[in-house]
Amino acid sequence: MVLWLALCLPALPLQLAERAAPRAGPLAITEGPPERPLVAFCNDPARAAGIAPAMKLAAAQALARTLAARTAQPRS
User: Fold this and answer.
1) CA–CA separation, 19 vs 69, rounded Å?
2) What is the pTM of this model?
3) Range of 52's domain?
4) ∠23-33-68 over CA atoms, to 5°?
5) Distance of alpha carbon 64 from alpha carbon 61, whole angstroms
6) CA of residue 39 relative to chain centroid, distance
7) Is residue 64 one of the residues assigned to a domain?
8) Does residue 54 form part of some domain?
9) How do residues 15-47 score in pLDDT, each as one tens digit?
10) DSSP 46
11) 15 DSSP 8-state letter
């Protein structure tokens, strides 16, 4: 008998960053080119400040001065 398991973990990078450095403030995970990163994921305090996925990091930082941004880089 063959068993298959499929997992959908869309916010895994955000969850890993929150566990690695727990903090109560806004947190965003960015993707894209280093010269123009975009927010890929953000936590609840960041959403409360008006930050949303697909927003430019510079715009997100203007909305929340205490925003902690982490780059989503897959390990090789």
Assistant:
1) 15
2) 0.81
3) 38-76
4) 10
5) 5
6) 6
7) yes
8) yes
9) 888 888 777 899 999 999 989 999 999 999 999
10) H
11) H
